[in-house]
Design goal:
CATH topology: Tachylectin-2, Chain A
Order of helices and strands: EHEEEEEEEEEEEEEEEEEEEEHEEE
CATH architecture: 5 Propeller
Low-confidence stretches: 1-55, 160-169, 173-177, 212-238
CATH class: Mainly Beta
Oligomer: single chain
Number of strands: 24
Strand content: 25-35%
Shape: globular
Largest sheet: 9 strands, mixed
């Protein structure tokens, strides 16, 4: 198989690092047959509140469930992007129809397209120098069988934002090019299909410049008065201060999109078609509003490359949309961005096409470690919430406190049960949890792993689902490893060319035969 500049390779090989194309194709066919018969061996469960070296099973769901993963649990490389491409935040969406655009769609954040070039030109290594980089919503059909090539997916839409830091004062060195900061973290979910709505919606995070001082207790740099600045706090200029904002698009086929914009008078809501391929002037997205008419925006301003907040998931339960996301605690806005703790918040909605979409924010849990990513959805086949989140294994776990993805279930669908979960052991800032999955794939070969932008497979309503080849599994997880070797074997970028991995997990009721 070959990887073109604007395509990625979907694989089902159970390997920890990308292989050469020929070997990789053979491994795909062999592993696809093996994966169908994988069965997790029974092992002794570990209590959710105890640190132990046993990596395979742990108790969750109020003591009624255990999650098991051992060496037989399926995982491997999902996508190996070309050096000029990247993929992050992969949500696999099962649509309720078999014909196009179903049955499955992949929705993810990708790079802006390269300028036109000859078909025989090699795909160049790439870093973000284009202002659209990192701001392209991409989609592609994914057949039910996991061993195949994902078709090329065109750029969809973006917000134009600068991509390079200003050079440091007094330095003659040029500023390094960084990966993009445009719209990111896409979340796809169906419209009100119970009312006959045919649209699906995709929510993303853009950034808007913060004009002037937004907090009477804050200096223009983002630091609070009366507090001595930390030595490592950024010396941000007011013109470079931004907030994340939620923007939205809707689609009937995941090929053509309408962008949520404002009417020409600046007040009303409009849905404006986006013309792909960079032709014409793209519409300027309008931030999604809450019930009070205020934009859904992150709590704390920060330099353009250091904003946090609003990443999460959307799940429909009882015809209500549940948007669960992390954001910085307002009391931490005066800290350096990398030191700001987060919390888990909930907003609900009844109609995504409305002018005022989301309810006021309700805090579910916190504080959480800085930069935490949390996804919440109704569990597959159960009236419970599943909560996945970035974490570190405990210090006495195999391999020590390495990056992993943790997962817990609530006892029922009561939303208070999410906040009742103990996501992290003390001290919370360390981000350690005994509820880790023990993922094996990826890494740089020296025992270091990166589990970035994890997501999972859902049905059209944003709730957990699995491919037909894994009917007995409880979920299908995806994540990016920025430390794993790139497809080209070079390290020009920590994002471009880095593989995306997948894994399944198994859950069973305690006492079930």
């Amino acid at each position: 198989m070959t990887i073109s500049a604007d395509s990625v390779e979907l694989q089902s090989n159970r390997t920890d690092t990308p292989r050469r194309p020929a070997a990789r194709a053979a491994a795909v066919l062999a592993a696809s047959a093996l994966a169908l018969g994988l069965v997790a061996a029974p092992v002794e469960a570990r209590p959710a509140g105890a640190e132990t070296s046993a990596p395979s099973c742990y108790v969750t769901g109020g003591g009624g469930l255990e999650i098991c993963r051992d060496g037989a649990e399926a995982e491997g490389v999902l996508i190996a992007p070309a050096p000029c491409a990247f993929v992050r935040g992969v949500q696999i969406l099962r649509l309720p129809r078999a014909e196009a655009p179903g049955p499955l769609q992949m929705i993810f954040q990708g790079q802006s397209p390269l300028p036109s070039r000859r078909r025989d030109e090699p795909c160049p290594e790439r870093r973000a120098t284009d202002s659209r980089d990192g701001g392209s919503l991409r989609t592609g059909r994914s057949p039910e069988a996991l061993a195949t090539t994902l078709p090329p997916s065109a750029d969809r839409f973006w917000v134009d934002l600068p991509e390079e830091r200003a050079a440091r004062r007094g330095s003659s060195e040029p500023a390094p090019a960084l990966e993009g900061i445009g719209p990111r973290d896409p979340i796809a979910v169906s419209g009100r299909d119970w009312a006959g709505e045919a649209y699906s919606y995709v929510f993303l995070l853009g950034q808007e410049r913060v004009g002037g001082n937004t907090d009477q207790d804050e200096e223009p740099t983002g630091r609070r008065r009366g507090r001595r600045a930390e030595r490592d706090e950024p010396a941000a200029q007011p013109a470079d201060i931004r907030r994340r904002v939620q923007i939205a698009a809707r689609t009937l086929d995941f090929q053509t999109f309408e962008i949520r914009t404002r009417t020409p008078d600046g007040y009303g809501l409009a849905w404006t078609p986006f013309v792909p391929g960079g032709r014409g002037t793209p519409p300027t997205p309008a931030p999604v509003a809450d019930e009070a008419g205020k934009p859904i925006a992150s709590a704390c301003p920060a330099p353009a490359f250091e904003t946090h907040g609003l990443s999460g998931s959307i799940s429909i339960v009882d015809r209500t949309y549940h948007y669960v996301y992390t954001d910085v605690l307002p009391e931490d806005c005066g800290l350096a961005p990398e030191k700001r703790r987060t919390a888990l918040y909930l907003r609900t909605a009844k109609d995504l096409s409305a002018a005022k979409v989301w309810s006021a924010a309700r805090k579910l849990a916190g504080p959480l470690p800085p930069g935490s990513v949390v996804r919440v959805a109704r569990a597959k086949g159960m009236q419970r919430w599943a909560v996945s989140y970035t974490c570190q294994r405990p210090a006495n776990a195999p391999g020590g406190p390495v990056a992993d993805i943790c997962l817990q279930y609530t006892p029922d669908l009561n939303l208070d049960g999410i906040g009742a979960l103990t996501l992290y052991a003390d001290p919370v800032e360390a981000g350690r949890s005994p509820s880790y999955l023990g993922l094996r794939s990826g890494g740089d070969g020296s025992g270091r792993f990166d589990r970035s932008a994890h997501f999972w497979m859902t049905d059209a309503q944003g709730n957990l689902d699995t491919p037909a080849v894994y009917p007995g599994k409880a979920g299908f997880l995806t994540w990016l490893d920025r430390l794993a070797p790139s497809a080209a074997g070079r390290d020009a970028s920590t994002l471009y060319g880095r593989p995306v991995y997948w894994a399944t997990w198994t859950v069973r009721r305690i006492g079930a035969q």
